Amino acid sequence: MTLIGLAALAGQGAIAVASSTGTSAPEPQKTGGIVYGFGATENGSMPLHLDLYAPQSPCTSPRPAVVFIHGGGFVERSNSGNAVPTIAAALAAEGIATLSIQYRLQGDRPAASPRYAKFPEDFRKADPDRFGARSAAAAAAAEDTVAAMNWLAVKGKEFCLDSGRVGLWGASAGAMTALNVAYALDDFGIDAPRPRAVVDYYGQLFLDGVMDLGEPPLLIVHGDADEVVSPSAATALAKSSAAAGIPFAHTTIRGGGHGFGPLGFFSIRPGGASMAQAHARFVARHMFDGTPDYVVQTLDR
After folding, report:
1. Domains of the chain by range and CATH?
2. CA-to-CA distance for 211 and 241, rounded, in angstroms?
3. Which residue numbers delimit the BD-FAE-like domain (predicted)?
4. Of the candidates 108, 176, 118, the residue with the CA atom closest to the CA atom of residue 142
5. What beta strand segments (E) does 154-247 contain?
6. Judging by DSSP bridges, how do beta strands 218-223 and 207-208 pair with one another?
7. How many whole angstroms separate alpha carbon 202 and alpha carbon 199?
8. pLDDT tens, residue by residue, 173-213
């Protein structure tokens, strides 16, 4: 494995939530503040919460679920804001639940478990000046995401969720976390549930050479005017996916910046659908054994 540089990761400003469709999207049923585990910190353990957004339709069989991991540079907590309701509504329309998770941040002073001890070491090596202070939080985010996936395996049936059909969707630091969980943890000898699909919004995989044949299909979304995480991160990720034989779709937003608003998430309508709809359908085709469409395209913001 070789290290590739890390860009600084910033939070996404609060954005007014728009409907996923031109008309009103069906509101999923939200259950907030579910404790899915506990995370170690220098001052003891802290509870980890998630908000569950479930389709309104009656449960006739366990539903697939997507674990959404918010951005914020591993310093901001925003699992209930920004575009979460829009994404959850689009997934609910496809029969998929959303688990928007809280995870340990730098200010929580997280303490890595023995299994994850080497993870922060490699983050520090990647960019010690910019990222050294946040390395423990980046490792904790990966550990907490795995904890949420393991919670699904234990408690999912109580909420009509199918732990065998899980996806990861992250933005910025959350996308880095999703990518680490899906493709890098096994290189550290860490077992984690395997997602069926991964959605990466302007994230970065901080290690090179960790993507392997048979790992989850990937959707990459990145603006070519992103000044926080370089667009080259998306290009490198696409090249790594192709080299490993991992199916991927890659959408470049011409003029798109960093964050849901600057990216054009609420205004771009690829093929007449919102971005949330289009990408929820990408996930749904992997959850329901459909025929995925691995498109490489550039859209105008």
Report:
1. 2-12+22-300 (3.40.50.1820)
2. 7
3. 50-111
4. 176
5. 161-171, 197-201, 207-208, 218-223
6. unpaired
7. 10
8. 999 999 999 999 999 899 999 999 999 999 999 888 999 99
Whether 124 has a pLDDT exceeding 80, the answer reads no
Whole-angstrom Cα distance, residue 125 to residue 3? 8
- C-alpha span between 138 and 131 (Å, rounded): 9
* pLDDT greater than 70 at residue 22: no
Task: Report the mean per-residue pLDDT for the chain.
Answer: 89
- 3-class DSSP state for residue 294? coil
CB count, 10 Å around CB of 231? 17
Element containing residue 271 per DSSP (H, E): none
C-alpha to C-alpha distance for 183 and 198, rounded to whole angstroms: 10
**Segment 7-18 mean pLDDT:** 34
Query: What's the pLDDT band for 2 if we cut at 50, 70, 90?
Result: very low
Residues in the chain: 301
Percent of all residues in the chain with a pLDDT value above 70, rounded to a whole number: 89
Report the greatest alpha carbon distance in the chain: 52
Tell me if residue 5 falls in helix, strand or coil.
coil
CB within 8 Å of 33: residues ≥ 6 apart: 49, 51
Structure tokens at 60: 């006739």
Mapped onto helix, strand or coil, the DSSP state of residue 66 is strand
The percent of the chain in helix, strand and coil, each rounded to the nearest 5, is 35, 25, 40
The terminus-to-terminus CA distance of the chain in angstroms comes to 35
> Can you tell me the distance from the alpha carbon of 219 to that of 279, in angstroms, rounded to the nearest whole number?
8
155 φ, ψ (degrees, to nearest 5): -110, -5
Of 162, 161, 43, 159, which is closest to residue 104 (Cα–Cα)?
Answer: 43
The predicted model scores a pTM of 0.91
Distance CA 53, CA 289 (A): 22
DSSP string, 155-172: HGGGGTEEEEEEEEEEET
Give the per-residue pLDDT at 133: 74
Bridge partners of residue 65, in order along the sequence: 97, 166
